[in-house]
Amino acid sequence: MLKRSKKDENSPLPDSAKPVTPQSNSALTPPVSKGETTTIGEHIAIEGSVRGNENLVIEGSLKGNVELEKHNFTVGSKGRVEGEINARNVSISGQLNGIIKAGGKVEITKEADFYGEIKANSISVEDGAYFKGVIELNREPHRKPAFKEPQKGFSSFEQAPKTGMTPDDTKKEK
Q1: What is the SS3 assignment for 127?
Q2: 50: number of CA atoms within 13 Å, CB side?
Q3: By the 8 A CB rule, do 52 and 64 touch?
Q4: Helix/strand/coil (H/E/C) assignment for every residue in 31-77
Q5: Residue 121: C-alpha distances to residues 99, 100, 139 (Å)
Q6: Are 98 and 114 in contact (CB under 8 A)?
Q7: DSSP secondary structure of 16-32
């Protein structure tokens, strides 16, 4: 049986047990919300749903849905993801095939391959990225609609029905 000394009980976690925080020099990475970040490494494959209350970075592969409504989701340059993503901000540098629902911004870098649908408040796609999909932006239009619904009655292209009287007829009634 192993015995622990008081020194061991009070010592902080070893480096191998501490959460991994990715170091990124990219100005394109979405702002990280306060809290922890979990990284799924390059040699890890996950199949199934993922829910959490912290930021998530995928460098390996993930097949399934991700629920991080108040946190950020990143597909790293070596990451491969297939599924539905629901997060605050999403950044893609690897491959993503699926549906993204973001409350904030979706960022697709030049290294990314994206296939699917995006519904977000804003989006940026770098020159060189591969994008095949549909985008829906969540916001009110900035200006009034260009076309108004036709008014009831006669349009300017239609003529009023003829009454049978001509302007000459009114002169004859004298």
Answers
A1: coil
A2: 27
A3: no
A4: CCCCCCEEEECCCCEEECCEECCCEEEECCEEECCEEECCCCEEECC
A5: 15, 12, 6
A6: no
A7: GGSPP------TTSPPP
Write down the pTM of the prediction: 0.63
Q: How far apart are the first and last CA of the chain?
A: 126
Q: How many other CB atoms sit within 10 Å of the CB of residue 169?
A: 10
Bridge-based pairing of strands 105-108 and 37-40 is: unpaired
Neighbouring residues of 85: CB distance < 8 A, sequence distance ≥ 6: 65, 66, 73, 96, 98, 99, 100, 101, 102
If you count them, how many residues does the chain have? 174
Q: What is the pLDDT along the chain (174 residues), one digit of tens a residue?
A: 434 444 444 444 444 444 444 444 343 444 444 568 999 999 999 999 999 999 999 999 999 999 998 999 999 999 999 999 999 999 999 999 999 999 999 999 999 999 999 999 999 999 999 999 999 999 776 666 666 666 666 555 555 555 555 555 555 555
Token pair 């699926």 in the structure block, residue: 98
